[in-house]
Write a structure and sequence with these properties.
Penicillin-binding protein 1b fold; 8 helices; 290 residues; six-stranded mixed β-sheet; alpha+beta
């Protein structure tokens, strides 16, 4: 994750991650937290910031993505570390920063600074929460009126329940499991994981099969979304995620792509500049004579 945020790395196997909408990398970088000994911390602001970054507040930190506050001690388990960061305060000032073993909860070593990355792919703040709440209400009213007009009262009732549950999460939890499905309420612009890399290279193995698989997934996903939407289990913007399948190959085609296939096909999955064909040569093995 960190390599992608820095625009480095070979990209690895992204697979289905290409479909997931992400927030632009600059918004991720804006939410890196860095502290050094001597810095001042507002405990209330830090608590809210960690929650918005996707960290879960607990009594005892044991897993990545958790944090705890006990008096003047702040324990945070960053998602890119193997050890807990313990920030000790003297008043509002950082007195020391240590790495702590998660099993023994004992200090391992002292460090000069602490860097904390977001724990989720979607990061929010107070303004984005207000924006999401307004967009949810607007989305709900439009769909509710449509269901009422169709005299689908059961679905209208269920839609109200769906909206109320989502509003409760947005208002009271800040960042929560499943927030990725609601990213369009928070952000106007989203990107794919390929945009997190400076010059990504994409390899499609058996592109014809990939295209067929994407079409099948799109059909299956859209059918599911439309059914749930019609019954009031989803709000309209939540169902928009399925539309990304439609543009997936076009998005891949904007980057340098290598397509590999065992058999030559005249059918073009994507436009390409050069076609290279390789033939396997079979050499007959002559047994040795004794």
């Amino acid at each position: 994750m960190k390599a992608a945020e820095e625009g480095k790395g070979d990209g690895g196997h992204v697979g289905g991650s290409l479909v997931d909408p992400l927030i632009p990398i600059e918004y991720v970088r804006e939410n890196f937290l860095k502290y050094e000994a001597g810095d001042e911390i507002n405990m209330k602001s830090l608590t809210r910031q960690l929650v918005y970054m996707g960290y879960e507040r607990v009594d005892l930190v044991e897993s990545r993505g958790q944090f705890a506050i006990r008096g003047g001690l702040i324990d945070v388990f960053p998602v890119d570390r193997d050890e807990i960061l313990r920030i000790e305060l003297w008043g509002d000032e950082i007195d020391s920063i240590r790495h702590v073993n998660r099993e023994t909860q004992r200090s391992v070593r002292m460090v000069e600074e602490a860097e904390i990355l977001p724990a989720r792919e979607i990061v929010v703040n107070e303004d984005l929460v207000k924006r999401a709440l307004a967009n949810i209400e607007k989305d709900y009213k439009k769909m509710y009126a449509k269901l009422k007009k169709a005299d689908n009262l059961d679905a209208a009732y269920e839609l109200t329940r769906t909206k109320d549950l989502l509003v409760d999460k947005v208002e009271n939890y800040g960042n929560f499991n499943g927030i990725e499905s609601n990213v369009f309420y928070y952000y106007d612009k989203t990107v794919s994981i390929l945009d997190y890399f400076e010059s990504p290279k994409v390899v499609l193995v058996e592109p014809v099969h990939v295209k067929e698989r994407i079409a099948g997934m799109q059909h299956e996903y859209n059918d599911s979304m439309q059914t749930r939407l019609g019954k009031g289990y989803l709000l309209p913007l939540q169902a928009e995620l399925g539309k990304r399948f439609k543009y997936l190959l076009d998005e891949i085609g904007t980057h340098q792509t290598v397509m590999m296939s065992a058999l030559y096909s005249s059918k073009k999955t994507l436009e390409y500049e050069e076609n290279l064909q390789f033939k396997r040569q079979v050499h007959q093995r002559i047994p040795s004579e004794f």
